[in-house]
Amino acid sequence: IRCYAQYLNVDAEPIISYYKEHLAKPQHATIIPVASSRRKSPVPLFVSLVLAAGMVTGIFLWRSEHGTGSQPLPEKTITQTVVSPVPPSVPENAAAPEKVPEQMPVQSLLSAAPPAPLEQKKEHSLEFRAIETTWIYLKPKSNSPEEVLLQPGDSKVWKFSEQVFVKLGNAGGVRVNFDGKDLHLGAKSGEVLTLFLPQNE
């Protein structure tokens, strides 16, 4: 009975007590046949004990569920005690801890940072000095085109901050100076030449 109750994961003591009370009651007389001289196998006896234990345990459980037997088996309860940590004692004359400055979120830092200054385009200078009569056409990217006719000894200076298209009607009759540097065009008199200045834009 104890092994069977342990297998069913129930307390065996109440069942054994119930079984002892059952044995204490008077039983009806039974006729016991004469034992045979042949040796009996212990297997039927073991099976009978197991069946009897199962029947007693089943009757006890049925009576416990319907309230006709003894007290129902107490349920196992687990009590968990939560121990709260005790804060360490602080001396009265101890200095107050320094307050750690709160960190600003990244988005606030980005919004608080001043905007980066826009990159200013470099201003270029283009100077023409005519040796012969020369027609000059100049067209910036985003401005209206300009043209001029220079006579020998005339000069013209343009200031701009973007690439320009230049067309010279007489490239051999004019000297071109770009950002302080003389452009040696190597053109002949009367030769038409086109330029893009600066070239890397």
- Rounded radius of gyration (Å): 57 Å
Structural class: alpha+beta
- Portion of residues within helices: 10-25%
**Uncertain spans:** none
- Report the span from N to C terminus: 100 Å
Could you characterize the architecture of this molecule?
The longest helix has 24 residues, at 42-65. This protein has helices spanning 2-7, 12-24, 42-65, 106-112, and strands spanning 124-130, 134-140, 146-150, 155-160, 164-168, 174-178, 181-183, 193-197. It is rod-shaped. A hairpin with a 2-residue loop joins strand 6 (174-178) and strand 7 (181-183). Helix content is 25%, strand content 21%. It has 201 residues and is of the alpha+beta class. The strands form 2 sheets. Strands 4-1-6-7 form a 4-stranded antiparallel sheet, with no helix packed on it. It has a 4-stranded antiparallel sheet with strand order 3-2-5-8, with no helix packed on it.
Give a brief outline of the structure.
By secondary structure, this protein is an alpha+beta fold. The protein has helices at residues 2-7, 12-24, 42-65, 106-112; strands at residues 124-130, 134-140, 146-150, 155-160, 164-168, 174-178, 181-183, 193-197.
